Structure formats: structure tokens, C-alpha cells
What we know:
- The chain is 20% helix and 29% strand.
- By secondary structure, the chain is an alpha/beta fold.
- The strands form two sheets. The protein has a six-stranded mixed β-sheet with strand order 3-2-1-9-10-11, covered by helices on one side. The protein has a five-stranded mixed β-sheet with strand order 4-5-6-8-7, covered by helices on one side.
Amino acid sequence: MKIGVMSDTHGYHERVALAVKKFFADADLILHAGDVLYHGPNNPNYKGDDYNPKTLANFINASKIPFVIARGNGDSEVDQLVLETPVLSEYAHVFANGKRIVINHGHKIPTDADKDKIAKQFRADIFITGHIHTTILEKRGDTIFLNPGTVSPYLSNREDKKTSVALIDEEKIQIFDLDSGAVLMSLNF
């Protein structure tokens, strides 16, 4: 099973569409760690020409690839009105490729110690978070911790300002530069 992973899309429709076309076209599932639309589906006041949460909502609703979404600090009941996929649960759980995957935005669990505790509680093989707009891929104890970063060039907190998404398959997890397609990080199971 091939699983796409993204977070912190913040209403940037074209960047999400690029990620799906370039990396997730043959994915079985897309996991999203929150802050999907942000600022409400009708807010025109955000950076860049690509900010279009209403179009992004329609894109997700029409997707042939199912989305599983954990609520971000910017996701609201207003967003749920336009998204057909549930977006208001703080935790999403998936069992795929023989792995327990837990998704949470991460804004309420800021430290590694907090994440370690929750991962252990849920017996997570993979614990996915977002929120900080940068990439993380590391194994601590029995759990792989993944933050795919953000698709938005306006929001990236990476030193190099690269935007990114991740792929999980039966053998490994990889984080890719959304624009160049280069592998930024990789970890084998």
C-alpha cells in the first residue's frame, strides 16, 4: 500500500494538486496532519495567488484517493461545512502495511517527550504530526516520528524554504521536495 502524507496545506489548492499529481497519483490513501483550509473557506485575504480554500475543499471532496485528516489548530467547524471528509478529530488512526499509524497536528504536544508518551500509549509504529512547517523523520524507541512539512512556500520553516510531502510504502518513508522531486529524507523500516 502506498500512502501519501501532507500537512499544513492552509488553503493552497494548486500546491496540493501538484503533490497529488506528482507523488500521490497511485497512492491508496492520503493522510493529512491538519490545517487543511485555514482562515475559513471564503477568506480572500492570504498570501499568494494560490490561496483558494474553497477550490481545495472541492478538490479533496472529489478526490478518488481517500483522505484521512486530523484536526489542526486552524481547522474549524466552518471548514467541516465544506469538507465531506471528517476534519474535526484531534487524532486519526490508520492500520496499513502492518503498521499502526497515528496522526495528530501536534500543536498541543510540542515536546518530543510528550510525543513519545502518546506514541507509546497508542502503540504507534508511525506517529505523524504537522504544525511546525518543517520536516522531521526519525526513529525513537519503537516509533518513527514523521512531520512532512508544508506545501506552501510562504509558510515553510525549513532553512532552505523547501516545501515537502512524504510517501510511506511497505519498505520505507521518504520526504520529497515538492518542486524538484528530490528526496530530502528517507528511513527504511
